[in-house]
Each structure stands twice: as structure tokens, then as C-alpha cells.
Amino acid sequence: MKIQHRIAHRITLLGVVLAMSGCATSSNPQDPLESYNRAMFGFNDKLDQVVLKPAATVYQDVLPSFVQTGIGNFFGNIGDVWTAVNNLLQGKLENGLTDIMRVAVNSTMGFLGVLDIGSEAGLPKHKEDFGQTLATWGMKSGPYVVLPVFGSSTVRDTVAFPVDFSADLWSYKDPVNVRNIGTGIRLIDQRAALLGASSLIEDASLDKYAFTRDAYLQRRESLIRDGGRNKEDDGY
């Protein structure tokens, strides 16, 4: 098994063990591990402030916007493959077929996805992962947990993490040095896309941890429900 896959499995195991251990308590039923989570959030935030945010700021300032868009499109096209699989696993056949058509169009006419021809052709982009699939299959989210480096999660999303990681086609790219460089660029591009949002959180939030936690849980719920509001609560 590749080193990256071993790391993913170990982080998943850590998250599940911590969520089940009861080593920290909180009055918030969604966040019984709040003491641990706040400590890990602080570590991740410091790592972001020292490494990721400066790199993303330089990336955003130096690269032309069309280059950044092309990079985002390229990796987004790779992600559409796994989205298609998850839509099919969830029984969303129409969305799954649309995703397959998007990948086909963007991989050919869009120069391996650098250009998002699919959206221009009326093929909407979806975002599905295995955590959402597990939710569709009836698995409850479980408590909120902050993973080392990877940040906000739940027990369900932590269980799904190694599956999502293993299903990422870029993780099999050879040679390894190209894969690693691409992974770094992808991470920085994703962080650059969040610079505006992170600045807003820092300026407006009195409790950055609570704001991030609540925003993550609400967003995950919206993704799982495809934006629906009048459905039975997912539960914890």
C-alpha cells in the first residue's frame, strides 16, 4: 500500500478512536470532543498561518487568474470521476450520467479539463464524496472531530476519508515527483480559493473555532440533502 494511503488510514483511525474514547467532554451534543478539537484546530490554524496561507497568497498574487482557473478546472475534472461514482452509488442516475458526460467532454474538448466546456454545454457540476454516500445509505454523522492537517470532519466523514483518498485518480499518477508537485499545487490552489472566506472569518468571528465547526456541519448537511430543507434531521 502506498505511503499516502497508510497515512490516510492512520488519520481515520485516530479520528474514530478519539471520537469514541470520551477523553474530552462538552455540553454540545454535536461536539463532545470540544477540548481535543479546539487544541487540534489551534495546531491546524497555526500550520495554515505559517505555511498554507502565505503560499496561497503568493500563488494568487503571482499567477494570472486564467491560469488559476485552468488549474482548478483540471483537478476538478479529476474529482468529477469520483463524484460520478458516488452519484451512481446514491441512486442519482441522471446526475451520475451527467458527471460522466462532463468528464468525457472536458477531458477531450477541454484539454484534459483545463477548460470547463461541460458547464458551457449545460452539464452542471456536482460535488459528491463517500461520506455523502454513507449518509444516503443511512449512516449517522456521529460527533464532530478535527483531524490533524485535514481539519473539520465527523466520524462518518472520517470513516469515508480513506475511501475518498484511495479513489482520487491523481494519487496514482506516475512518476511520483510529478504526483507530489501536482498535489502541492492542488492544495495551494484550493487554499487560495478560500482566502476571501478565511479573511471574513478572522474579521467577523469572535470564536473562530465555533464559527468553522458550525459552518462545516451546516455545509455538509446541505450537500447531503442537495440543498433541501424540509427533510428529516440527519441526527448525531
Folded structure, characterized:
With 236 residues, the chain is mainly alpha-helical. It has one domain. The protein is 67% helix and 3% strand. It contains ten helices and two strands, in the order H-H-H-H-H-H-E-E-H-H-H-H. Strands 1-2 form a two-stranded antiparallel ribbon. A hairpin with a 3-residue loop joins strand 1 and strand 2. Helix 3 crosses helix 8 and helix 6 packs across helix 7. The radius of gyration is 18 Å and the shape is globular. It starts with a helix and ends in a 12-residue tail after the last helix.
Pick out its properties:
236 residues, mainly alpha, 2 strands, disordered C terminus
The total domain count is 1
Shape: globular
Strand order of the largest sheet: 1-2
Q: Which consecutive residue ranges, at least 5 long each, have pLDDT under 50?
A: 229-235
The biggest beta sheet, please? Answer: 2 strands, antiparallel
Run of helices and strands: HHHHHHEEHHHH
Secondary structure class reads mainly alpha
Instruction: Give Rg in angstroms.
Output: 18 Å
Please give the oligomerization state of what you see: single chain
For the residues shown, what is the average pLDDT? 89
